[in-house]
Amino acid sequence: VGVGQDITELNQVMAEAKRVADDLTRLIETANAPIFGIDVQGNVTEWNAKASSLLGFSKAETIGRHLVSNFITEEFKYSVDEVLKSALLGKETANFEFPMFTRSGERKDILLNATTRRGPGGEVTGVIGVGQDITQIREVTDEQKRVADDLSRLIETANAPIFGVDPKGMVTEWNRKAAELLGYPKEDAIGKDMIISFIEPENRSSVEEILQKALAG
């Protein structure tokens, strides 16, 4: 006696599930962002083409190896491990910044989003990390800070009185020479109305006109 079962619908569901899985795999592999995955033990399960090109380690070299132990610098091992452990507990993390080093020792600053990966039954199977290489952004930001610090030092130590005001005319800069010349320390000047507090009444109109023109560009 033969007992049959119509598995047409089951085959269709399985085929659709495979198609979705294949699409996801291609998406991860070809994404223009470094993406890695780990299992619940912290071992690498995903390492896409962008991660390989950015860090210099091929997929074959990374799969199965412990991510934190092998690819994170000593000073950041603990913090990265905590983020990944939290994701394994279902607590996802966005915009976590940390450095990774390439095979040649070059530092890459990564902005990471760590997402919990779950199986068909909802059980946690690992973590997917989607990164963004912000090395150049960090370098630009550091340079801007350096220039701003240099400018602040230049203003403070200049052998001429220098002051700054915001669009409302409130003092925002008051250097050492201004304090020495006018007798008002910086803490007494910052936040006060420049015209009302430090300009003689007969000169206020002309000075205000000059400041308004400067504020207008």
**Ends distance:** 94 Å
Mean pLDDT rating: 86
Portion of residues within helices: 40-55%
For the biggest sheet, the summary is:
5 strands, antiparallel
Q: How many extended strands?
A: 7
- β-strand percent reads 15-25%
Molecular shape? elongated
Helix/strand class: alpha+beta
Number of helices: 10
- The SSE order reads HEEHHHHEEEHEEHHHH
Identify low-pLDDT runs: none
Please state how the strands of the largest beta sheet are arranged side by side: 2-1-5-4-3
Radius of gyration: 30 Å
**Quaternary structure annotation:** single chain
Structure description:
The protein contains 10 helices and 7 strands. It is an alpha+beta fold and 217 residues long. It has a 5-stranded antiparallel sheet with strand order 2-1-5-4-3, with helices on both faces. A two-stranded antiparallel ribbon has the order 6-7. The longest helix has 23 residues, at 8-30. The radius of gyration is 30 Å and the shape is elongated.
Topology:
Layout: H1 8-30, E1 35-39, E2 44-47, H2 49-55, H3 59-62, H4 67-71, H5 77-88, E3 93-101, E4 107-118, E5 124-133, H6 135-157, E6 163-165, E7 171-174, H7 176-182, H8 186-189, H9 194-198, H10 204-215
Antiparallel strand pairs: 1-2, 1-5, 3-4, 4-5, 6-7
